[in-house]
Amino acid sequence: METGADIEASIRTRAFPFPHPHFLSVQGLNRPQAEQLLDLADAFVAVNRQAEKKLGLLRGRTLVNLFFEASTRTQSSFELAAKRLGADVVNMSPRTSSMTKGETLIDTAVTLNAMKPDLLVVRHAASGAAALLSQKVSCSVINAGDGWHEHPTQALLDALTLRRAFGKVEGLTVAICGDVQHSRVARSNVGLLQLLGARVRLVGPPTLMPSGVERWGAEVFHDMRKGVAGVDVVMMLRLQLERMDGAFVPSTREYSRYFGLDSEKLALAAPHVRVMHPGPMNRGVEIESGVADDPRVSLIQEQVEMGVAARMAVLASLAARLEAGQ
Amino acid sequence: MSAASPRATAFVGARLVDPESGYDGPGCLVVVEGVIADVVRRPTLDNLSADIRVVDCNGALLIPGLIDLRVKTGEPGAEPKETLKSAARAAAAGGVTSMVLQPDTDPAVDDPAMVDFILRRARDIELVHVYPAGAATKGCEGSRMAEIGLMREAGAVYFTDADKPIIDSKVFRRVLSYAKAFGAMVAHRPADPYLSAGAVATAGEFSGRLGLPSAPAVAERIMLERDLALCELTGARLLVDQITTADSLASLERGRAKGLAVAATASINHLSFNELDIGDYRTFYRLDPPLRPEDDRQALIDAVASGLVEVIVSAHAPAPPEDKRLPFSEAAPGAVGLETFLPALLALHHDGRVALADLIRAVTLAPARLLGLEAGRLTVGAPADLVLCDAFAPVVIDADRLISKSKNSPFDGRRLQGQVLMTLVDGRVVHQAQP
Fold it and tell me: Which terminus of chain A has fewer Cβ atoms in its 10 Å neighbourhood, N or C?
């Protein structure tokens, strides 16, 4: 088993250090960079399973979690990842803190920047918010979800989960099902899975498909039974229940009938099929509890574990860049 | 300035482009007491008397001053964005000698006292001609008709709710038929409000990938078809405000073929940019209507060249940093355009897409005719609203150096050709380039 020192040494002596100052989108990655992040994350999984989990790669560094949208899961995953690498972590939730309502995203960022953090993890409801912020601060910005646009660490942890479950991502057929239009998870996953050589299918009602989706290089299905037929992986997306108001779908009961994952639809997939969900789940709406909790098919708990390791890999790669003074 | 000016000024050695006669060639022009007194189609003038000031144009372009049918300022109500004075100075610098102000200020220009207020403020500033457009409905809210007759008498040149479509077809029908009785023109932005609600981009592959709320381009055509039907029903004069899609152009053409009294404007932004420009979420490209695919832009340029779209507007809409330094979907729409109007227009000519005389007509004679103005032509007796410009001078647009109080120019950093050398309003020099 690798020790922390081994990992530190391997990062420092890498032939191709991580080239980006920020981690905003999977679009900027090429395949070797993505594989390298996954290899590193893999090593961190081993560390995380030891009793002694603490490493020193981010010692002395400060990470700020800036979550304009509440997310216990992602925020604590980043917090754990940073702490295990030895960083100090500050959590800020502008909606609940004393920051006044009139303060803009950029004001907040500039204020934080003056406190000299090294890494800034941001989640915001507007597409492009993380990119905008990265132009205004001098630290590394990690996108933890910007509107409907991207959630690149989620895609990385999903790829890591798949690689460990199947050995490799290349050649897998993955059906991403549900509300693709409003999903940053879907956009990041389509990009990264395709980069890693998987075939992607997008499944959902036409009202929840983004405009121009037919040109994403993915097969689009409006009939879930056909969409999941023979696939290796079914990745469910969360349906935000307020979508009923916008006339996207008529009711949760109709949605779950045609687009919810149950054992009957799952039976149409490959015999070795595995099921994923980025959480939090609407049980009984997009996924049946019996499927979500079945340890033979569900990778959902595994995804949460991989989340910490994948984020450690991103933070460590960006920090190595800081150290090199780039 | 006017007291010291000589009684007459002669512009010699110019390249005159007159949109009325179609003349494009060497010429001289004499201005006496604010009016064009002579136009000569020769490069030089003989027998000039000694008290005439002579401006040697060195072959520069001398054209009628630009008439911009769609300008917003922040006055009254949002003066940090733009005042009438800063807009007028920006207009003069851009060669715009007449501008029509949109009524959606705070409060809205929806009664004759407000029309009068704008006109009095403009008179005090004494730079360019300012014409207010009146609101079509009270507060631009789309429900109760505004005082169209009284505002027209006070000096409002057309009636519109500016960016807000009038959703209620019954209200719009009544506005059209009432305005017709006064011979007033009504301008309307065609956009289906339900399809467009919350949208900041045109639906398509690109906005889908960016994860931006979008509306399908047909939202424009749907509303335009309604407007044309009501125009046909009432026989009123309709100005289609900022047409942008190939689809709508086809509708417009059908309306024209039926003989409807319909004219349309295109904004310089939609003639210059397409949806790909929003790629980096740059909020200076957040416009309303949103930028369209390249096919639509090409169709729009063709429509200007063919005359289907008669008028080009700057769609000047100042927005300060606090409204633009935001995530794309939260930023205010609009772009400043007065000072970049002419070089941006000339780009369409330099690219070989639209003949120079046609381009100039779209910003001079065509809007003048819609408003019933004497300006917009190089004719003896017409007001001496003139622009002298070097059509070939290279310029790099630097938003920080704009006169406008807001710097939200999508042309920032662009390399264009065309520099305004001198702007005259009623024969007065209101802008002169630094040598």
Answer: N
